[in-house]
Inverse folding.
């Protein structure tokens, strides 16, 4: 198993912890996460921040995000070359390079007003420059991947008995596909990782 721990600087917290409601949000999270993996902000503890992200590559490939008593995880549908605990290269499963240039292309497309109103990759293919074409190709792969979204929440503000337990897991992000699993107690970060690692023993629901 390979792991990479990265801090999330305070000025970037909103980029990583904004609500994920659709594939566009998922794609933007992957883009800023890939950029964070490639850039050296310093080791854990060297920069003041209460937030961090962790890449875990085993039989699965997942990103974990931690902030206070809220943490979540998504799949990371890329191949990562790691040397001496540093990410050297990121590529898509079809071999396309994910670097600062392609990441900027992805973010530029996602932030275009026209694309937000009509998120059609086909329209972008028809009227794309070399740079935007690179972003479109990567977005196509991201949109075809499975997000694997799951979030742990300790939420006293919205606690409502068994309907919205204090501690719970939110599975999936879309309003039409999301559901909750209530928990009897707080899950430590290490347990949250372990639940999602297919190389460790399964966790069981008691019903």
């Amino acid at each position: 198993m390979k792991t990479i721990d990265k801090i999330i600087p305070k000025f970037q917290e909103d980029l990583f912890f904004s609500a994920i409601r659709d594939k566009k949000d998922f794609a933007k999270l992957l883009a800023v996460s890939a950029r964070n993996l490639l850039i050296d902000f310093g080791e854990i503890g060297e920069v003041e921040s209460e937030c961090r992200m962790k890449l875990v590559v085993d039989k699965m490939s997942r990103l974990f995000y931690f902030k206070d008593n809220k943490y979540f995880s998504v799949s990371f549908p890329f191949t990562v070359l790691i040397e001496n605990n540093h990410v050297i290269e990121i590529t898509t499963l079809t071999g396309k390079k994910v670097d600062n240039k392609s990441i900027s292309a992805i973010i530029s497309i996602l932030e275009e007003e026209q694309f937000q109103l009509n998120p059609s990759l086909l329209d972008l293919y028809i009227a794309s420059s070399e740079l935007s074409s690179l972003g479109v190709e990567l977005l196509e792969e991201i949109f075809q991947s499975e997000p694997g979204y799951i979030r742990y929440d300790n939420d006293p503000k919205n606690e409502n008995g068994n309907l919205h337990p204090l501690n719970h897991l939110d599975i999936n992000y879309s309003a039409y596909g999301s559901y909750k699993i209530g928990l009897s107690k707080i899950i430590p970060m290490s347990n949250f990782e372990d639940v999602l690692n297919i190389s460790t023993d399964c966790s069981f629901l008691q019903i």
